[in-house]
Design a protein that fits this description.
This protein is of the alpha/beta class. It is built from 5 helices and 10 strands; from the N terminus they run H-E-E-H-E-E-E-E-E-H-E-E-H-E-H. Helix 4 packs across helix 5.
Length: 208
């Protein structure tokens, strides 16, 4: 449990971890803070966009759509590994989820996976308060590829935030691990990604 990083500290942490970052418009002040709190933060949530094409995906995640206003995440991770920052503060990415999952993420006391969620978007606890969110450009059909550069960016993003907050990899979860009506991300496993983040967290950043 922690206060959210400032926008400056957030982008600095990403860059220090080797993340390639693009800043989109007024991302530092583009948020949904008027709808509720952002923080204390407890983890990082990974999603897939169910779209193709970087620029159209970034535009959708920044602006949202008729039934769900943007921003829909903090950063969009392209297939080339570039992270496009589209918002900062409260964003519409997590929705409702299982309070028991949140409890185990905060404690970082689960094994391979957190307990299977039993509630979803309409009847769960507000995850937009508690998580940093990253949308990854992918159709989410199980066959759309996840290039090595994109997976490395997910690893670096998760590591950067965990390293800065002094969290372990168990603070990084997928949307499907949060809500019982979600399937994302599909095409790689979150336990495998947490293993990657754990290994990276054991390597100190080089001194400048």
């Amino acid at each position: 449990m922690a206060s959210p990083l400032s926008a400056d500290a957030f982008i600095a942490a990403l860059r220090a971890e080797g993340v390639k970052v693009t800043e989109v418009g007024n991302w530092r002040t583009h948020n949904r803070n008027h709808k509720g709190s952002w923080g204390p933060v407890n983890g990082v949530m990974i999603h897939h966009t169910v779209t193709s094409g970087t620029q159209s995906s970034v535009a959708l995640c920044r602006d949202g759509h008729r039934t769900l206003p943007g921003p829909l995440c903090h950063g969009v991770i392209g297939k080339d590994g570039v992270v496009h920052l589209v918002g900062y503060g409260r964003t519409n990415h997590a929705g409702g989820g299982d309070p028991q999952v949140l409890k185990h993420v905060i404690a970082e006391d689960y094994d391979e996976r957190p307990p299977r969620p039993t509630v979803g978007n309409t009847d769960g606890v507000d995850g937009n308060t508690h998580f940093y969110g990253f949308e990854c450009v992918n159709l989410g059909n199980g066959t759309d590829p996840w290039p090595a550069a994109q997976l490395m960016a997910i690893e670096r993003v998760g590591t950067a935030i965990c390293r800065t907050h002094k969290w372990g990899a168990q603070s990084v979860i997928g949307h499907l691990e949060w809500s019982n009506d979600k399937i994302d991300p599909k095409g790689f496993t979150m336990p495998g990604m947490r293993d990657r983040i754990t290994r990276r967290l054991t390597t100190p950043l080089p001194r400048k």
